[in-house]
Amino acid sequence: MDNKIRIGIVGYGNLGHGTELAISQNPDIKLVAIFTRRDPNLLDSKPNVVHISQVLDFKDKIDVMILCGGSAKDLDEQGPMIVSHFNTVDSFDNHQRIPEYFEKINQSAKSSGKLGLISVGWDPGLFSLNKLLGISVLPHGKSYTFWGEGLSQGHSDAIKRIKGVKNGIQYTIPIREALDKVMNYENIDIPANEGHKRICYVCCEENADLARIENEIKTMPNYFYGYDTSVFFISEEELKQNHSKMPHGGLVVRTGTTGEGNKQKIEFNLTLDSNPEFTSSILVAYARAVFKLWQEGKTGAISVFDVPLGYLSPMSGEELRRNLL
Amino acid sequence: MDNKIRIGIVGYGNLGHGTELAISQNPDIKLVAIFTRRDPNLLDSKPNVVHISQVLDFKDKIDVMILCGGSAKDLDEQGPMIVSHFNTVDSFDNHQRIPEYFEKINQSAKSSGKLGLISVGWDPGLFSLNKLLGISVLPHGKSYTFWGEGLSQGHSDAIKRIKGVKNGIQYTIPIREALDKVMNYENIDIPANEGHKRICYVCCEENADLARIENEIKTMPNYFYGYDTSVFFISEEELKQNHSKMPHGGLVVRTGTTGEGNKQKIEFNLTLDSNPEFTSSILVAYARAVFKLWQEGKTGAISVFDVPLGYLSPMSGEELRRNLL
């Protein structure tokens, strides 16, 4: 018998695959089972892939479940259900609905005596921590968030829903001039559409009306309207060859003043080849924290704001102070 | 009666002054008294400046003491003494001696039922948190720290001790080529002297032997030997006019890989007009956390690794989740 933290993964899409890979980089953590709604026999016949209906058979075999449901809809349903039997970590990212989701997880977790950590990843997650840090340390100042350069799944999906489009990829790119102004302490307000431009690579059906498609993209409300948007039509081969990775990143900046107008700047910057693999790596580190906090008696719902960062590490408090402080 | 957190400051040098200014930016925190070893009447006759010998008169009037002792020697003596009567935050920054100092604070604080948070600031402090985050989220990777551009007090003091030197300022500057290699994921080892150069502005006594002084600086072990060091001799007026601010900053970078070699990068970057004012701003935010943790029953010594970041903010958990997650 070893002392490894035993993990279950719920959902076997990009995030679930990434979590499987991330666990293999952490010697103190082991993967027990991956739960899927599909027929596990149709997957790559890994012995640890199990149908979701068997989840309760693992009640005493898993310390923390990492919920990798691909959409807010999955988590809305799965989160409260799973946390009534297991400790959980999830990446719920519908910012506006976080308070409501938190309440649901909290009620379910309080009844079961488990711990549910919600909205882990980089945004929400590490970006949220840095926004909090900036505003707390420099109360007189301004906060900025830039996303990209990176692939936005939501915007890519929006393109794909247009008639005549076979496939599409959208990259969000910070506008250099806006970023420079922020970095130069110009203390301005930058609406999202003045801070970012959008570049779309679209692959269409034969004889599709390209002018109409380009127009539909550029005028789509909430997604593209008001943004500097470029549309490039490319072949399916080119799309597959050059745009199949999922890079992303971004930065959180706080500029502020202290004393007699001394300028101070805090910047947190991510550059990611693979957005889902990075998000999964964060989920796995936080799963370690959830297990430790639960062992100390913590139950209910929590967010990244409630987790001391030392709990993310396999090192003891003494090792951390000696090596990293 | 208000509900503000009541702060005392011990030590009225750069850091103490900065803390006084930082408190004024936080409406939920108030300054009760500043304790000094000097004769308070010789200071600028502020009514709240008190001689250190009166500190015990304030036992029920102060929630958290911010220890602004200018050197490890001050804190070594003051830390354990003050924490036997008050909750404390300090910026103990002698990295190698942190474990020993932690033990002393812990013993004293456990006996008194108080809470002592040690080694707060940006290095140690925010940089430590980011090193921990990097290594925990990207276990397969490499961590780097660069300091500057900024004024190093220790190196400036070392210059001043040389015979014939009246005054001196040393700036630490990251070497661009080394930084570029790190940012390009070259995964190299960079000893401190290959990552930084040193620029010294020195003002000497009349008829001093400049060649000897320059040589003594450049060959000084631990401080300058092995570094690309430039020495400029300037007048006292020029030193005062152009080099009296205390700018600093630096960055912590983690480069790593996930999955099949996808490159990931996390960067935390500070650019500071005033090093002591920024450090004090961090101390004040963490004083808020100390008070909350102590109210919850936490005693003994802790470090930044033990503090949930949500505790730095005056906002409630609910407000934080709604506004910043």
TrEMBL record, chains A, B:
A GO molecular function held by the record: diaminopimelate dehydrogenase activity
Sequence ranges assigned to domain Meso-diaminopimelate D-dehydrogenase C-terminal in this UniProt record: 121-274
The keyword Amino-acid biosynthesis appears for this protein: yes
Class in the EC hierarchy, top level: oxidoreductase
EC number(s) recorded for this UniProt protein: 1.4.1.16
Stored InterPro entries: Diaminopimelate_DH_Ddh, Meso-DAP_DH_C
Pathway, per record: Amino-acid biosynthesis; L-lysine biosynthesis via DAP pathway; DL-2,6-diaminopimelate from (S)-tetrahydrodipicolinate: step 1/1
Catalytic activity: meso-2,6-diaminopimelate + NADP(+) + H2O = (S)-2-amino-6-oxoheptanedioate + NH4(+) + NADPH + H(+)
Keyword terms: Amino-acid biosynthesis, Diaminopimelate biosynthesis, Lysine biosynthesis, NADP, Oxidoreductase
UniProt-listed Pfam families: DAPDH_C
Chain coiled-coil ranges: none
Family stated for the protein in its record: Belongs to the diaminopimelate dehydrogenase family.
Subunit structure: Homodimer.
Protein name: Meso-diaminopimelate D-dehydrogenase
Organism: Alkaliphilus flagellatus
